[in-house]
């Protein structure tokens, strides 16, 4: 899937990624490996109106997760998706990959330019900063057909997430 991975420095980052997940200790890691087979994917068009559809979809998929995890996931997905729609190219896909100790969010677009943090201004520049503050880890994967921005959120459900 990936041809390269960019780790993003600063708080909330530091996991080197390839195809799947950030390794963790013990049974949570094993449960995450097993749960990675549970994938929820949504294809969207280039219209900014798709953001409401994506937010509703995330709430529906994560309805059994704690409310704080759902609200953070909605915010992170909204930021990553709006960045893809504004700065990337079609095709666009949003994925949720629940695990026992974390939720991985991925947003694909067909654009070749890597995402980068910008200085906040009246025109924006706060999205990736917000993602960085909310996520346990985040970064981007370059693919021959575009890029994937990803973020991992810790869940409050140590017994295992539902798919």
UniProtKB/TrEMBL annotation:
Keywords: Kinase, Serine/threonine-protein kinase, Transferase
Annotated ranges, domain Histidine kinase/HSP90-like ATPase: 44-150
SUPFAM superfamilies in UniProt: ATPase domain of HSP90 chaperone/DNA topoisomerase II/histidine kinase (SSF55874)
Stretches for region Disordered: 1-30
GO molecular function, one term: protein serine/threonine kinase activity
Top-level taxonomic group: Bacteria
Protein known as: Histidine kinase-like ATPase domain-containing protein
Lineage: Bacteria, Bacillati, Actinomycetota, Actinomycetes, Pseudonocardiales
């Amino acid at each position: 899937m990936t041809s390269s991975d960019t780790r993003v420095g600063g708080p909330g980052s530091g996991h080197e990624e390839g195809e799947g997940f950030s390794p963790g200790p013990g049974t949570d890691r094993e449960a995450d490996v097993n749960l990675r087979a549970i994938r929820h994917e949504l294809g969207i068009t280039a219209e900014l109106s798709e953001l409401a559809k994506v937010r509703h979809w995330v709430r529906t998929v994560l309805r059994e997760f704690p409310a704080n995890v759902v609200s953070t996931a909605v915010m992170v997905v909204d930021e990553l998706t709006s960045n893809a729609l504004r700065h990337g190219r079609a095709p666009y896909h949003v994925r949720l990959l629940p695990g026992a100790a974390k939720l991985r969010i991925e947003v694909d677009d067909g654009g070749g330019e890597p995402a980068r943090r910008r200085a906040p201004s009246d025109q924006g520049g706060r999205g990736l900063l917000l993602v960085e503050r909310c996520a346990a880890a985040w970064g981007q994967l370059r693919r021959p057909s575009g890029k994937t921005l990803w973020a991992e959120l810790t869940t409050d459900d140590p017994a295992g997430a539902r798919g």
